[in-house]
Amino acid sequence: MSALTTDEQRAIDAARGFAATHVRPNVQAWEHGHGDSRSVLPEAARAGMLGLEVPVEHGGQGLSFGCKWRVAEILAAADFGVAMSVINTHNVANHLARKAAPEVVRQYLPALLSGRRTGCTALTEPGAGSDFSAIATQARKVGDAWLIDGQKAWIVNATHADVMVVYAQTEPGAGARGIAAFVVDGTRDGFVRDPRSDSGAARAADAGGFQLRAYRAQAHELLHAPGQAFKAALTSINGARIYVAAMCCGMVAECLRVAREYGATRHTFGKSLHEHQGWRWSLADAAIDLEAARLLLDAAAARIDSGSDAQTAAAQAKVFATRMAGRHIAALLHAMGAQGLREHHPFLRHLAAAQVATLVDGSTEMLLERIAKDLRKL
Ligand SMILES: Cc1cc2nc3c(=O)[nH]c(=O)nc-3n(C[C@H](O)[C@H](O)[C@H](O)COP(=O)(O)OP(=O)(O)OC[C@H]3O[C@@H](n4cnc5c(N)ncnc54)[C@H](O)[C@@H]3O)c2cc1C
Fold first, then answer.
1. Which atom of ligand 1 is found nearest the CA of 363?
2. Ligand 1-lining residues (CB < 6 angstroms)
3. Across the chain, what does the average pLDDT equal?
4. Ligand 1 centroid from CA 359, angstroms
5. For the segment 261-289, what is each residue's pLDDT rounded down to a tens digit?
6. Is pLDDT of 2 > 80?
7. Which residues are CB-neighbours of 196 under 8 A, at least 6 positions away?
8. Domains detected in the chain
9. pLDDT digits (tens, 9 = 90+) for 336-354
10. CA distances from 340 to 73, 140, 276 (A)
């Protein structure tokens, strides 16, 4: 595993503290619709989670991607939805700090870094998911400004976020070539939020949708020009695939921890569960694949930190880790007997989240296509 600096180790300890104090005690209440996971985002900000990779000159910590994926792993062990929520607001802050016009940075960055405002990145629409180039949200140039119309769905944080990075088509029929990205302010006219969350799976991710109806974006709110946005999205998505893989590792590690502890206290046929070979092998299998997934994602993350091409490595890490999570969380749930179904345990919540992980930031099939494309080149 790649080495961490003292500051990075401190950030990781802060993530552990945040998860233990603000996430684990609340997660069951959120699952039942009591309280609001969004309320812990200011705490995430105080723990430095919203500025991890944001450059120091912009008020962030300027830490490496290797630190970010470890934070993602720790947060997801407590709850995948919270991990996605925190990381997605962080990503918008980092994206704006690096790419937005100075007036956009001044207007939104301090609020995002403090958790007063939350962010999301919106590619997906009701009619276009895997096929990103088919998005129908349209942006028309009117003088210096842009008028945007369309609908987004399945967007992390969309039930509360009000600083959005929105991808839209500027030239119908042009596909990837015509796609641009805009900073959209959810408090302005023309923004209409869908009232309900899209799903109870990974509830704290607060996935939802919104419509833009003749929403007016100013010229300086164009984040990526037509022809550049598609490429920019595909580049940044490699990092997302790696931290989703890390989140899967976090969830499996947590289920393994709970099953190990339970196996020492539960007795059948006069022995602890650990003393039954058939039982303990399911834990050993999970431990092997968890280690393999971590090695794959560490190698992929090292490519991001060194600026090398991470496309294939990220795809491999995500496919392996998401499959590993689906298989082993189900097996570890089984190893708990009926006890695994109790709500205070993470198994059912993490199992649903592992399914979400197979879709977000590139579904398994899209990633297999990516890997297969490289194999054809050889
Ligand atoms: C909880 C949650 C949070 C999300 N957050 C965000 C977010 O923050 N921002 C955002 O933009 N999106 C987000 N998404 C959307 C996610 O990126 C999409 O779900 C994903 O891209 C797949 O799109 P789809 O669901 O429309 O499935 P489709 O594209 O309709 O595909 C349906 C199925 O067919 C498969 N398939 C499609 N095409 C092919 C093919 N050519 N060959 C083989 N199989 C194929 C897919 O893999 C999938 O299994 C989120 C989704 C979820 C569930």
1. 47
2. 88, 120-124, 129-130, 154-156, 199, 202, 205, 207, 356, 359-360, 363, 365-366
3. 96
4. 5
5. 999 999 999 999 999 999 999 999 999 99
6. no
7. 159, 208
8. 6-117 (1.10.540.10), 120-227 (2.40.110.10), 230-377 (1.20.140.10)
9. 999 999 999 999 999 999 9
10. 22, 53, 18
Check: CB of residue 350 under 8 Å from CB of residue 251. yes
- What is the 46 CA–ligand 1 centroid distance (Å)? 33
Query: In this structure, which amino acid lies at residue 376?
Result: R
Q: Which atom of ligand 1 is nearest to the CA of 364?
A: 47
